[in-house]
Design goal:
The chain has 9 helices and 11 strands. The protein has about 290 residues and is α+β, with helices and mostly antiparallel strands.
């Protein structure tokens, strides 16, 4: 439909939501993702640990050593500067508002008794979840289950790594740099392959024109009784990067009817009908106001 659409002035995406149903939440950013497999191979066959341990390098230790090039294993801090975003004062102010409004829900993590978070201040939690890079290990191969494990030095360790990239940082450039960082100068000469197979940019919303911004605020006051609130999201909506790449000169509004108890993507996903109606009215009124 590109030839029919031309270049839109405004793209509205109704795929998110907010922290409550009392106001319209506008998504200002989404993190991107770079995920793939890190494979570390050291031998052609397994060797009894009583014979080879301490002499043959452990593929697990080498994999852990390579991951330390990305993440400080003591603090969880992501080390490469090219993985970070310069967080503006405006972003900090908006994150502070979110932290204040979120209250105890900002700190609602199912940690076991005594387990400490990596960051504790509510503002740091909001910024870390939504604007900072992170590394997660989400799968593994080459490691037998505990009940099947023998005293054998394994031939390889394969890990599925998932890196959340900050909004505005090119995920494709990150993928190339991550591959180079992990494969270069392999410890103990191990055979290392880092192939990133899932790469999607995040999203950073450009400033809305004054006429659209005013129309949106007026509509929110009419239907919600509150001005719209900014929201940052730590997940990824890959289509947003595609749309922004296709229409670099367009403006975007990402919002939706999602909210507390909605259980998005779950088997009992719910839609808050009154909010769905208000979102529809707000978007219609804002667009109508902008094109007058």
């Amino acid at each position: 439909m590109k030839s029919d659409l031309g270049t839109p002035d405004l793209v509205i995406v109704l795929d998110t939501g907010g922290m409550d149903y009392d106001r319209l939440w506008i998504t200002q950013s989404l993190r991107g993702i770079v995920a793939g497999k890190l494979s570390v191979k050291v031998s052609s066959v397994g060797v009894h640990s009583g014979h080879g341990s301490g002499v043959m390098p452990s593929s697990f230790r080498l994999a852990r050593q390579l991951l330390s090039r990305i993440e400080d294993e003591n603090t969880g801090e992501i080390l490469p500067e090219w993985l970070h975003l310069d967080i503006t004062d405006k972003m900090k102010e908006e994150c502070a508002q979110i932290a204040e409004m979120g209250g105890d829900s900002i700190d609602d993590f199912p940690l076991l008794d005594g387990v400490q978070k990596q960051v504790n201040d509510p503002l740091d939690i909001v910024m870390t979840m939504n604007l900072s890079p992170s590394l997660s290990i989400i799968g593994a191969d080459g490691i037998p289950s505990i009940q099947d494990a023998g005293n054998v030095l394994r031939t390889n360790t394969d890990l599925k790594i998932s890196i959340r990239t900050p909004p505005g940082v090119s995920a494709h450039e990150v993928a190339e740099k991550v591959q180079e960082l992990l494969e270069s100068d392999p410890p103990n000469g191990a055979h290392v392959e880092a192939k990133m197979t899932e790469v999607a940019d995040g999203f950073l919303s450009p400033e809305l024109p004054e006429n659209i911004s005013k129309g949106l605020e007026s509509a929110c006051q009419e239907f919600y009784g509150h001005p719209p609130m900014s929201l940052f999201i730590g997940g990824t909506i890959p289509v947003m990067a595609m749309l922004q790449s296709r229409y670099p000169d367009s403006k975007f509004i990402i919002t939706g009817a999602g909210g507390p108890g909605g259980n998005a993507h779950g088997p009992d996903e719910k839609l808050h009908i009154p909010t769905a109606k208000k979102v529809t009215k707000c978007m219609s009124a804002a667009v109508s106001s902008a094109i007058r």
